[in-house]
Each structure stands twice: as C-alpha cells, then as structure tokens.
Amino acid sequence: MKSDTHPFSLSTSVTWAMFVFLIFTSCSGDSCFEIKRSESYAIVTGNNDDSLTMKAAAELEKYIELITSEDLITTGGSGQGGRTIFIGRESITDTALLAETVSLSRDGFIISAGSGSLLLAGNNGAADLHAVYTFLEEHAGCIWFTGSEQHVPRSKKISIPAGKKIYEPAFSFRVAHFPDRDNAQFVHRNRMSTFSEWGMFVHTFQTLMPPSEYFGKHPEYYSLVNGRRIQDGQLCLSNPEVIRILAENLGERMRAAPDKIYWSVSQNDCINYCECDGCRELYEKYGNISGAYIEMSNKIAARFPDKQISTLAYQFTRQAPVNIVPAPNVNVMFCSIECNRSMPLGDDPRSAGFVKDLSDWSALTKNIFMWDYVVQFRTYLCPFPNFHTIQPNIQLFHSHGIPMMFQQGSGRSWSDLAELKQYYISKLLWDPGLDGDSLINRFITTYYGQAAPYIREYFDLSHASLQSVAEVQSLDIYGLPSYYFSSFLSRDLVTRYHDLMDMAEEAVADDTVLLPRVLRARMSVDFAWLDYALNAGDTALSFIDRQPSGNSVSEEMMAALDSIVRNSEKTGVWAVSEHQYSLQEYREHVRRLVAMGVKENKVSPEELRSLTGMHQRYSVPGAASLADGIFGGRGYSQGWLGYEGEDMIIEITPKAPVETSRISMNFLCDHVSWIFLPTEIVIETSADGVLFNKVAGGTYETTSFDQDITPVHMEYEFPEAKAAKIRITAKSMKRCPEWHRGAGMPSWIFIDEIVVE
Q1: Of 96-105, 509-518, 703-712, 744-753, which has the strongest mean pLDDT?
Q2: How many domains does the chain have?
Q3: I need a labelling partner for 22 at 20 to 30 A (CA). Which of 93, 236, 347, 440 fits?
C-alpha cells in the first residue's frame, strides 16, 4: 500500500465517534481529497478517549460547517457512501502509518490524504489538535488572529492534494509572551507551548532563600559586595550551606508538585554577585562568573536526576564558562537583554559579543532555553519597528541548535501591533523558513479589512525609516520615544502615522468588528504623537502655544490626550510601560507639565547657574535648561540634569529683583537607575544678593524600593518676597540606602524646569 495514494484502509474494529454529512467530489481520480456539500462522510477517532483528540474532532466538524454553511448532522450509523476523516493515532489501522506516528516528536503530526480518506494525527491529543487546525489553516484559509478573533472564509468545498506530509516544529518549546500566551484557544490553534511543566520560573534565589528568613542569622549566605554582605543581591555560591539549603527547599517544592519537570534555580534580577575570596576562586577556576552558577546547578541537578534544573546566562553570567560543562539535566536560559534591535543580531557589529557567547554556550550544551526580547519595555505604547529582525534572529538561534524559544513581549498588556507580532512569532517558531512578509501581509490584509492599506503604510514607513539609519541608531528595549525623534519618530513621520490612522479609522468607522482593531493599532501611534508634542521642544507640534504675548494651552492636543484615554477604555490597551504605568496616570503627568509650562516664568534661562557640579553625561545644555520651557520626560536621558553623590544647588540671579511667592520644579524618581528624590528641599531668597533667608522647603523620606519611573512635581508657596537672588538646594542622600541593590554606591538627583512666579 502506497502512503501517497491511499493512506489506510478502514477496519470494522474502528469506533465511529462522529458522523458529518457532506458531499465529496474528486479532483481528478485519486489526485485529492475534497469536502463538498450534501453527501455523508464520517469523522473517526477510534478507541481514543483523550479529551483533546475528541475536541479536535468537534472543532473540525464545527469549522467545516462554518466554512461550507452546511448544516451538519451527527448521528450513529455506518456512514456508507461517504468518505472518512481519521483523527488521532488510535484511529490508524495502517501499520506503516502507525509506525510513522511513533517516530514523531511530542508536537509533531501527520496529514495524509487520499481520494477517499484523510488522516490528521499525532501522538497525543494536543498534536491531534495541531493537525486539525493546520489542515483548516492551510487548506481552508482559516486564520486565528488572537484568542478571541478569527477569520473563517466561506467556501463550497475544501480540497487537499493526495499525499502525506509530516509536520515537526523547529523548536520543541515555543512561547510568544503576549496577551494570548495563556489562552488555550490561541495556543492550540497556533501550535504554541505552555509552561505547564514548570514548577518554578526564573529569578528564584530570593524565593528559595528569602533574606527575611536567613539574612539576620546568616549574612554569610549572601553576596559580599564592596566589603559588606547585602540582602538585595545574589547568594554566596562558594558556601556549601547555601547549596544544601537551596536543594532542600527546592525538594520541598518538588514534593508539592511532583508532576512538574522544570525547576529554576537562578540568580535574582540584579547584579551584586558575591565578591568573597571563595567565589572569586570559582570565577577564576571557570574563567567566568557563570562557572560558579553552573557548578551550583550541576550539584543540585545531581540530587534530582529526573528533573530539569534551569539556571540563567544573563547579564553578568552571559559569557560561557570554561573547564566545566552543564549536566545533561541542567537547562541554561540564555538571554539577549543587552542587544540592539535595529539590526539582526548576526549582522550587527554591536552584537558580536552576544553571538560569540551564543556559540560558546551551544558548544557546551544543547539544553538551552533562548530568552529573547521583542518589545520596548519602558514604553509599551511606542512604535517599535523590529519585525525585520525577528525572523533572522529566530533563524540564528535555530542554526545553533537551540531547542527552546521564549520571545518576551508585553505579557498581559497590549503593545505596538501586538496582535500581529504574537501571530507572526508563533508561525516562525514552528517554521523559521516561512515567507515572513507574506505572513505579515496576510494578517494585516485580513485583520484590518478596508483599513489595511493605511496600517501597512504605517508599518512600512516606520521600518524603512529605522532601517535607513540602523547602523547608527540603536533600538533599545528600554528606550523612550525621545530616543527616536530624529529617526522613525520625527515630527514629519509621527504626523504622517497619525494621519494614516485617521484614514484607517474613517475607513472602518461603521464596522463594529474592524473599528476596535484599528483603535487598538493606533494607540501606539497616538502615544508617540502626543509624547513628541510634550517632549521634543518643537513649536510646530506642542501642547503649549508659545507666543511673544504669552503661552497658552493647545486645546487640540489636550483633546487628543483625552481621546487616547477614551480609546484605552474601549480597547483594553492601558499600560504605558512594563510596570503598569497607565494612560490615565500619563494624562495627569501631561496636565501637570502643561499647567506649569503656560505659567509666566519670572526668570530666564541665562539667569540660572549651578553651584555644584552636574555629571558631565547629564549636563547639556547646563542650568539654562531648567528655565527653557522644555520638560524632562519619563527617562533620565531625556531633558534632565543629573547630580551624582552630591547636593544640587541652583542659584538664580534675575537681571532685576523680582517679586515671588511661588516656585515649582520637577524631580525624577527612578530607583532602578539609582535616582532618588532629595532628602530635603531648601528655598532661600536674598533681597541684597548677600544675605539669604529660607522661605520654603520640605523633607522627604525614601524607605522602600519603587520600580516605577516617576517625574515628581514639587510646588512651594510662601509670603511674597523681593529677590535679587534665589537659591534652591536639593540635598542628596549621597549613597544608595541599605535596602537598595546599589547599597553604598553613589545615588543620583535629577531635576528639570524651575518656574518662579
């Protein structure tokens, strides 16, 4: 029996699980299997009781009915005169085909068609589902955009050429970390993986050995940094007690979840690795810090030979060790967090070190979990034109034999074109050799309907603009819109994107299905347009209309700000950043800055000078920038003046004495970057320029870690004073506090815009 002509014969022992009535017409003899209206056929699952196999049968019946618009009848009976669709391994009676399924991977499957029958089967129910959905996608034209949105074409028939095709994924583990990662429908329909086999997942030192439990009595278990043991760091891996406790505590968790296979024993999400003599000896022994972490992982893996112990190659452990090899059951999570995204990794000289590390690790082990990053985490709501890098990067990882792929997107939050990105990645993780542009075009054309040409133009313009300067313009996953004001987020381009989205919205204004999709797509464009108006200092596109007669608020821009918040509520797109900074919070931030910006400032830029030294990297254009009407953004590199480890003292000398009763200013709070609010603000005025009197101020205490990046507005009122000079002192804590991961290192103050009224 030839598998390319007739896949199997029907045995009387087969259990008939479901019958569906349709007509089948032959293409030309045995050249294809064809489903058409009106004559009966049967779906057979054999003796299979796998719930997912039964779901596969039910899904196939449902979608055939949707496609053909034929009422399908499920009955008992013989199905005589019809043709047969076999689903699952239990339905196979042909010995050769059965043997082929045995050789399939866990996710692999077969689609085999003859003139009278069709086989859709893998080794388990999930693979059977993969087979059904692939058949519907490739031969019926179905597309599953998201967990709740789909395209099901209408057709009189479904045809598949006779023959057999085996489907195997390029990667055994495939996750695109976007809103539909945990949606079972999206996962099955787009052949993704889940974390169902993971007991603990990443950055687990703090969980397995919490400082609150151990540090007080045993500080020696924790990192020695700059001569002192710290809680907010790593563990001392040269201490055998640490290894013992890690293994014991891990074992307790394993016993509570015996079905889980992967268990992460990995560094915390900070640096602060141990500098004690014992750990230094390990680093030297293995040529890199990572060697100590592999030694630790190997020791724990030996205790649990039936489990996979996962650890990180991340930041300070990214370089591969020498003189040690990960045990077979040690899984290495190799991370690309530092890399540039404006060019494919393999083509970018800036990423040469990363590619070398990738090669070095893959020479040591193939048990690698590749952790890649595909969105901008500091600003989810910002255009991030990196599609041209995704496919070549996935191909690079595949060429190094990487079996497991995790593409970290925006998690449960929506980001720029997230629907397209998660769909695109899901397809490439199964087959990196697909025609990427065809995938993109198919999605955009089908998902956005009449609005598709405008969405596609936005997509093409943003990518072309970045690619034209990719060799000098980095695309940073922790970037901000302001980083790109001279490239793909220039005034001309953000204005064009905004116009395109207006046209896209107009094209589907009356379509209740397509309009929400367009509104979601335009969120990132609208945000970039607004952020440019707020932070670029461009008088042609600004929230503030600056005229010789005075400043006023742009009502058009404020209306646009309200509009994006309304669209946020309609679309569910609300998170500006990884730390869940919302659009409502962003609006309040903008309102505060605009209110400050339209005030008449009684001092001019040239009247300000700093009496203490600004850091040279954050001093342009000096103290004059504190009264230029341009505000610092949500990142320290955007319009802020920085002071490292010392107080900030600003002296203002008006050309003529001024009457003042209110002074306002902005500081930045970004604990991740060691930037803190001042411990105290002191405002002094001098009537004669010599003697100063304190007129206002306040003290501020920072007692806990805050992951948010927050510009903080401070305003002080006092009895009116005539001032020939004004002095503003912001006192620094000088060093990061004990509870901070940078404890003992110089802390920062960042300030922008001082308004004297």
Answers
A1: 509-518
A2: 4
A3: 93
